[in-house]
Amino acid sequence: MTGNDKAKQYGVTPQSQDFNEWYNEVVIKADLADYSPVKGAMVVKPYGSALWERIVRWLDDRFKETGHESLLFPTLIPMDFIAREADHVEGFAPELFTVSKIGTEVLDEPYVMRPTSETIIGHMWSGWLNSYRDLPFLHYQWGAVFRAELRTKLFLRTSEFYWHEGHTAHADEQEARGEVMQMLSIYHEFCRDVLALPVVRGEKTASERFAGAVATYSIEGMMRDGKALQSGTSHYLGQNFSRAFNVKFQSREQKEEFAHTTSWAISSRIIGALIMTHGDDKGLMMPPNIAPIQVVIIPVSRKDNVEQMVAEAETLAGELRAQGVRVRVDKREGLSNGFKYNDWELKGIPVRLELGPRDLENGVVVVKNRNADDKETLPRGEAVAGMVARLADIQAWLLQRATDFMLENTVTADTYDEFKAAIEAGKWVRAFHSGDPESEKQIKEETKATIRNEPLDGSEFFAEREEGVCFHTGKPSGYGKRVIFGRQY
Amino acid sequence: MTGNDKAKQYGVTPQSQDFNEWYNEVVIKADLADYSPVKGAMVVKPYGSALWERIVRWLDDRFKETGHESLLFPTLIPMDFIAREADHVEGFAPELFTVSKIGTEVLDEPYVMRPTSETIIGHMWSGWLNSYRDLPFLHYQWGAVFRAELRTKLFLRTSEFYWHEGHTAHADEQEARGEVMQMLSIYHEFCRDVLALPVVRGEKTASERFAGAVATYSIEGMMRDGKALQSGTSHYLGQNFSRAFNVKFQSREQKEEFAHTTSWAISSRIIGALIMTHGDDKGLMMPPNIAPIQVVIIPVSRKDNVEQMVAEAETLAGELRAQGVRVRVDKREGLSNGFKYNDWELKGIPVRLELGPRDLENGVVVVKNRNADDKETLPRGEAVAGMVARLADIQAWLLQRATDFMLENTVTADTYDEFKAAIEAGKWVRAFHSGDPESEKQIKEETKATIRNEPLDGSEFFAEREEGVCFHTGKPSGYGKRVIFGRQY
Fold first, then answer.
1. Phi, psi (5° rounding) for residue B248?
2. Nearest CA of chain B to the CA of A112: how many Å?
3. pLDDT 10s digits, A108-127
4. How is the subunit organization of this protein annotated in UniProt (chains A, B) (predicted)?
5. pLDDT, tens digit, 9 for 90 and up, residues B7-37
6. DSSP B235-293
7. Closest chain B CA to residue A68
């Protein structure tokens, strides 16, 4: 699409009018991603890729700081590996991509494209592990995984998606469980401090566990339509996979034992969470801490001074870069200023600066925060010197807005009628539940709501310990606190 | 393998005795990579992955500096896309991985796992391109690609390997050819300045071109057995792919034109080149500029002062880190100093420091360069302050050694007998060749040697313009200079 074509098609369906349509349009029009000719797969475009690279970089640095090492395992996995852990194959079989021919050779034993890598990593570990001295294995890899999806939604539901998968092996359960909680904490910190996403840390119920896990923990965020999005998971796998793949070692006491393993992941879905938590009717709102472009400068020029004003804008950009700010000067030709303003608002750039000849003369610059209604005219030096603080303010504003929204749209319910009314109204519901899987299933069928998680003791949201009676079965609560129900992506 | 098992199996077959065996052992024993249960695919282990990450980081920074943008295209490609460019399908068909089932659904139109992405990128471009104002597209992606290999050799020949593939589209041939040469220069600079690999830049003959290219340029390095390894390629694709995928635009003159496209790549094979260019009988030699660990410190202790000496080693490490040096302290227990020395020499760490209680008392440290025979005992402050310069010296030494080796093992030949004798002796041969493809083919069948490339005018190696008579056909030289023949990996 050229600039002019885009101008014609300017604008997105307002978020408040049709959230799904807003999402689909904003992803395309902001140039984050596009549909591909491969069913269910997307193309991540430069703006989306720059965003993902920043996500990868932050997480990767934290993984390394906490002693983890990256590896690269094959994309293909022998089909029979998947079958070796009973729950695992049941969970993944319907989604597998099968490779049965290489060159002209038809394979006796087909491969699958990895839906996740516990199995092949377990296999490799069994060859690498001998003694407790070799442990822990603190491994992770970045890459693509493949799970068939019936309906594509860019970033949120694609057959191929991008992620890291962490895989660790430990000599005992306590250490493994410590790892699981450490990684959940890192995910929580990342969401809160970098993406400005308030998330609820908690444990999933048995029916929502990862296929093959003993315990699954998640972070859950609320989108602006009230639905939940599971934004990261961390699993304690017990000895399930180590038994299936013979990952054993000689203990300090000279006994043969199976390792306790974990796995954990955040995927490119998190970009969907970012979009759906922060946007507004005009488009995206990028949190400054992750924004590939934090400030955009629009040189406001007449036909006869384009080059001069671009040069002046570049000078201003240099002053901001010296403060560590990520800046882009919009030098595109043949587009109106109004189009450019709208375009960068749609892309969610936190701050826009406008610099015209008169501003230059007066030593001022026009400043527009993405989250503000009005422009400000500031002395240029002040605008530059205050930019880092301004960006921090916008970051805090976004986290506060999202937190307020989540709190305002979470209600308690003590009867099924209250529960259904709240779910229907797009709320999260805090309620007592017995823990009975059959009841969970029935509630899901009737209301499309599931237990998002049981908030962890001590976490900042919804974690109060409380006793009560299950709204659905009348049995005593199974968790010692209310759990979070919601519809989900 | 535990440390003790490794100690028992210490040592590698000397490079001078059996180069292939040396290579296979060194990759495994240095923990760079391992064989996997997937035919032809490897597992890249932490040391290899750290090395690859550093390669990726350097190149990625350069791509961005030169205005390129990263994207992520699907791993799968519709089979019929591959068939659309005639040379392309002929080149890749025998190596393709076919996906014909997703979940339980058998596909009418199978997908292939990408062997390279010109086709699907061409398809996407045709949707994105309208006007000359949209050009150039300066795109690249990092990822895995899949080409069946009959015999696995870790890093060098694996069915799945890692790379970036650059893809650019331009309004005219001149700009596209400029891009091709720019990327070849970046590859050359990377090999020379970072990996300490002397490489010959040049154009491939028609029979060695990329499937679908108008012109292919390569950088070729000489391994320590005299064989060549093509270490990077840059292709001018003309309008072949843009015609096949309808990548057209309205020119400044309002005419419809097809874009001129390029592609370029360096893959994880480059790690094979690094190993085979720099190693010696004891193992790897990592160039300091790419080494994940530049200096290893061995605390030399008795049983009663292990903790103290580790703490002292960490203090020393901190002093080096303050100089920007990448340091590892070897804290492994239950291993002899001798084992540790050998282990880190095998891994090719540029500098080893030994710190014992008496050294501490005397304010000295023992320094051993990987490329030197003898240890030095230096005042500690001097060793620390001189480390950056020492690493630079080792870097320069490696490039010089590899350059000398390449020059010493490249000979000229003017008759077929001279040619065959030199090839048989493991040399590169500079010779006049007619350019006749049939003659090239015959030479290859008889000697396994191919034309590596025609060195570019102005490049530092073997580029002198010269006229002469083809040693094989007696016809006049087709290149205005001698071309480089050699056996290849």
1. -130, 165
2. 9
3. 999 999 999 999 999 999 99
4. Homodimer.
5. 445 689 999 899 999 999 999 999 999 999 9
6. EE-TTHHHHHTT-EEE-TTS-EEEPEEEEEEEETHHHHHHHHHH-BTTB----TTT-S-
7. B46
Write the DSSP symbol of residue B305: G
* A473 within 8 A of A439, measured Cβ to Cβ: yes
Given this model, what pLDDT does residue B4 score?
Answer: 41
> How would you classify the pairing of strands A260-267 and B364-369?
unpaired
In chain B, the largest separation of any two C-alpha atoms, in whole Å, equals 83
Which residues, 6+ apart, have CB-to-CB distance to A477 below 8 Å?
A: A432, A433, A434, A435, A466, A467, A468, A469, A470
Q: Which residues of A touch B99 (CB under 8 A)?
A: 97-99, 113
Query: With contact defined as beta carbons under 8 Å apart, do B36 and B51 qualify?
Result: no
How would you list the strands of the sheet with B260-267, edge to edge?
Answer: B69-70, B137-146, B160-170, B260-267, B228-236, B215-222, B200-203, B450-455, B483-486, B428-431, B410-412
Question: What is the rounded average pLDDT for all residues in chain B?
Answer: 95
The torsion angles phi and psi of A391, rounded to 5 degrees, stand at -65, -40
Task: State yes or no: pLDDT of B3 exceeds 60.
Answer: no
Which residue of B47, B102, B105, B335 is the best one to mutate when testing the A interface, meaning the one whose CB has the most A CBs within 10 A? Answer: B102
Confidence class of residue A304 from pLDDT cuts 50, 70 and 90? Answer: confident
Tokens of B406: 């390449």
| Three-class SS state of B202 | strand
What order of strands is seen across the sheet that includes strand B97-102? A76-78, A105-113, A97-102, B97-102, B105-113, B76-78
Global ipTM: 0.95
Residue A10: pLDDT band (50, 70, 90) is low
CB A248 within 8 A of CB A154: no
Q: What is the DSSP letter of B448?
A: S
Phi, psi of B104 (to 5 degrees): -105, 5
Burial class (CB in 10 A: 0-12, 13-18, 19+), A9: exposed
Percent of chain B surpassing pLDDT 90? 91
Nearest alpha carbon to residue A188 among A459, A468, A437, A3: A459
3-state helix, strand, coil in chain A (%, to 5): 40, 25, 35
Contact assignment for A38 to B78 by CB distance below 8 Å: yes
User: From the centroid of its chain, how far is CA A451?
Assistant: 19
Contact in structure between A136 and A67 (CB atoms under 8 Å): no
> Among B10, B7, B469, B22, which residue's Cα sits nearest to residue B279?
B22
Q: Map tokens 């690094």 to a residue.
A: B274
CA A416 to chain B, closest CA, distance in angstroms equals: 37
Question: Measured between beta carbons, which residues in chain B are less than 8 angstroms from residue A43?
Answer: 71-74, 124
- The token pair at B417 is 């007998």
DSSP, res B72: B
- What residue ranges define each of the domains in chain B, with the CATH number in brackets? 11-278 (3.30.930.10), 295-391 (3.40.50.800), 410-486 (3.30.110.30)
- Substitution target from A76, A108, A111, A249 for chain B, most B beta carbons within 10 A: A76
Alpha carbon A467 to its chain centroid, in Å, reads: 33
Assign residue B310 a region: left if phi > 0, alpha if psi is -120 to 50, beta otherwise?
Answer: alpha
pLDDT reading at A3 higher than 90 = no
